[in-house]
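so the lab meeting is tmrw and i was supposed to have these ready like two days ago... anyway. pasting both below. for each one the top line is the aa sequence and the line under it is the structure tokens. i havent really looked at them closely yet so no promises
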Amino acid sequence: MSTLHTDAATLGLRRSVVPTAAGHIVVHHGREAGGVATILLHGAAASWTTWTPLIVASDAASDGADGGHGESLTDVIAIDLPGWGESAGPVPEIAVVSCAIAAVARSLGYRQWRLIGHSLGGFIALDIAARFPQHTVAVGLVSPSGSGIQRALRNPIVGAAALPAFSGMLLAMRMLGGLGAAALPLLNFLRRSGALRVLARPLFRHPRAIDASVSDALADEIRPRAFLAAAEQARVYETSLWNRISVPVRSVHGEHDVFVGAGDSAAMRRRIRDFDDVSLPDAGHYAAVEQPTAVRKALADVFSASAPALRTARNRDDARRIGVKLHRDAGKVATHRVGSAPSGLALDLNLPPVVANALDHVATPLDDDNRARSVDVDVVKLKS
């Protein structure tokens, strides 16, 4: 079982804080090579450290240590999503998070990116790809949440039958949420007693092989309020937006992933034009932790992508003007232009004010010593 690393410097990364309307987002970034950014998006009850085994595996591959060939991950942006890791909550709606992450990448000097999302982070990766098609070159999904999770969230009875492990975790989070402040000492007791390792067994193919760093991270990131808020955002999310994705989307999940529904891959294939998935026979929900080398190989197309796929005239129109109504109830939708130069985020998004404001509040990233770094961010105010 892989070890989760918390020392960013040993991986060639440094910590920065980017203030946005979605909150102060903590990112660990670096390994610059002047190319496409690799944005890593963790799932619920996790943080940026989820991806450290994949980074280590990519370095081993570049050295030939795993018997294969490959390149180290470069231009890495490993995000602590709002409500998780060092990024404070609350957990906003997915559209707000997506716009904030795009702003983070831009603030770090990137105009193009590939997106890698684990579990609920896959929702965000696909949402960004749909909203920023000119800037997304490919999407990789690791053990992604799909239609099965949505059905379980929308119909608990169906969920209990189809995905009992997820339904059980959801119930546990609701119970812990009801305990309030008393939940923290309980979680600490479960970790010290080794009970948390037992409770986490459904998430892994080989739970007895879980490294202490993994179980400790799970204990630290079990945040009932954040989990329930993220689940609610997934419940109400409209996956029809994924129809707009035209870049390659590659997915990999463990054969023993108890959070994957029977029809998840078929549902994504119906939504996404260029979709393919791979099942790893000896992994569970945390495939990138249990088998990082296999995951790296399965997502080789994503890591090698360097430019968005060619689009039809219609898709080029979509890239200029997505026109998505996120809030139908209020009926107040404004046009928001982000950037005007060809190298900028030249998109007209029909966004509700709450989302447009998330883009307007982009600020310069702060290093650990809280010194602002100069960043060029083109944001034009809402048109009246």
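ok protien two:
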Amino acid sequence: MKEKLKTSQNEHNKDKLDYFDENEENKIINVRKKALNIKTKLEKISSVEVEGAKQVVEKFEDKLRIEWPVLFGENPKFIFVYVDLDSFYASVEMLKNKSLHNVPLAVGGNAMICACNYKAREYKVKAGMPGYIAKNLCPTLLIIKPNMEKYNYYSEIIMGILSKYDKNLEIYGIDEACLSFDKDSLNTAYNILSKKTDLKKKIEFENSCVLFTFENICKIVEEIRNCIFDTTGLTISAGISVCRGLAKLSSKVNKPNGQFCLKNNFQTYLNDLDVDELNGIGKRTKELLVRTFNLKKVKELQENIHLLYLSLKMKTFNMLFRLSYGLSIFDGLRPVSYTSLSKKSINKEYSFKATNDYIEIMNNIYNISKYVSKKMQKNNYLSFLISVKIKFSDFNSFTIQRQCKVPIKTIEDIFDTVIDLLTNHFSDKSIKQKLYESICNVNTIRLIGIKVSSLIKEKNFNLIQKYTNDMVICSERLCPICNLGFFNESNFIFESHVNICLDKQQTEKRKINKTLLKFFKSTNTEPNEKYV
């Protein structure tokens, strides 16, 4: 009986593996088709166009020198410290159970693992990998179900410690964040730490102020890391550099439980990196760069960036251009104005054992809604756009979103909106099918994600309401010409839009009156019928 069950489980895992492999293979095939089309397009480009593209790239470089002069030799006004907790979920599990320290350990389920310890990584197991594939790589792998409450508890403690040293701490996830130091914040951090440690002996001063140097920041970062370990028992790695992207790259150098400072010769450091070592370039983008342009190293990417300008979308080109200089997607603003950087979105994804059990799915949606709402309320955010992501056991996925008429913030707001979105997506509208009836008929679900964006501070929204006396709340008005919806806009804006639409309509009518189309319309005869 046991052998039959084992055989059945192996066959089930094999079917899942086939789904996964087929899905990954289809993605790569699509990338290769795209690469072939781009290569064909490039063959038709003239030398004049190539020279023109090189001149455009030079202008991009000139703008970058103005925006980020520190990348080209100027002294930094800000120094960024990217911190990343070492195999966070797995480390929390090992914290309370010492017997797990020398065991290959993963956190997640058979469908997907979300973290693994360094022992498991020796077998090439990694986060984002299906659990059954990880088991094939490491038969002794122990997979533990995630405990998000426990992880959130430790994350809150650590982010609380970090925020003492940087009030504008940028939190990118449950286990990663970035601090920004200038002369003032460096002295603030020193004053906090010097009360607890003998830091004074290690730091260089000038006129009783801490010198703004990489060496001093490295010593302060080391003390912050020690403080986190003493408080929680968890280790954290750090990268220190002149922008967020380079700091993140540096954080990987001495993992786990180490730090690395990259203070100069940035391009020399970047040149020999493989393109997919840059944060933001994944497997498919690497495949596209290699297949289309034969670009494997960052140096080759920079030298041939003009070809990308000629063949890729502007958004993709601009992203790859900036990544090649070590910037990250979060380095959108100049360092001198980083305090104005606002959080663009809050999102949370949760993987679990594939299921179409209605109650379990509802519980997961509620827990994610609770997490997102808590983050919003902590920072006093309101949202006007909500997105839901669903992944199935066959690795297909979809994302749906809704622009909200009124701002959302509470658990109930988020949960109700998500349920409504899923009901509209899954249900058969012709028979007014309920979600719990329709969800049982779909493929089993293994991941749910919720994202809120178009964020605005609640106090800012209240000010807008206060000073817009004729604002109509929760009442949709449609333009009678183009049917565009207006929700919270003033009457002046609405009426101005309608007048513009009316003017356009009259202009179009005048144009038609001057053409033969007017004659055909007046006789109710199609042109091709009248003259056949």
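from a quick look at the 2nd one: Residues 87 and 381 are 30 Å apart (CA to CA). Residues 100-144 form a domain with the MutS, DNA mismatch repair protein, domain I fold (CATH 3.40.1170.60). will dig more after coffe
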